[in-house]
Amino acid sequence: MTPAALQRLADRLELEALVIRYANAIDRRDFASLDSVFTADAYIDYRAMGGIDGPYPVVKQWLPQALGHFPGYMHLISNCEFQIDGDRAHGRIACFNPMVVPRPEGGTDTMFLGLWYLDAYLRTADGWRITRRVEEKSYDFNVPAWLKAVVNPA
């Protein structure tokens, strides 16, 4: 294998590890570790699935409050496509996101969200980081009526 081919392979593995690190941080509610995922000036847009958009520090502060409504969830990452160009890259990452949702009358249901992350990455002195993440909705299933206005914006 040529050095360039080895570098492309190493970059891809590092980018895959980065998007998995994001999913694990969110699912563990370890929001502080997102600092090793995003650049300080990253832009995040979660509006397609009912969230907010803005600079990373604002979105990071919003996450615990927004996700605190859900007793459990998982972000299962797959189908990672990366276009790497030197120290910059773009990616399209599939995410299957089951979420446990409390019922107003008691008990819980599980809803399922399917989405893609459309990412931009930058190689920094500390490794690859996300500079831009935009959600693109694929589908939702079993979203409770009280939550539909948020997850299915008009």
From TrEMBL:
Gene3D superfamilies: 3.10.450.50. It holds the Pfam family SnoaL_4. Residues 7-133 form the SnoaL-like domain. It comes from the Bacteria. This is SnoaL-like domain-containing protein. It comes from Fontimonas thermophila.
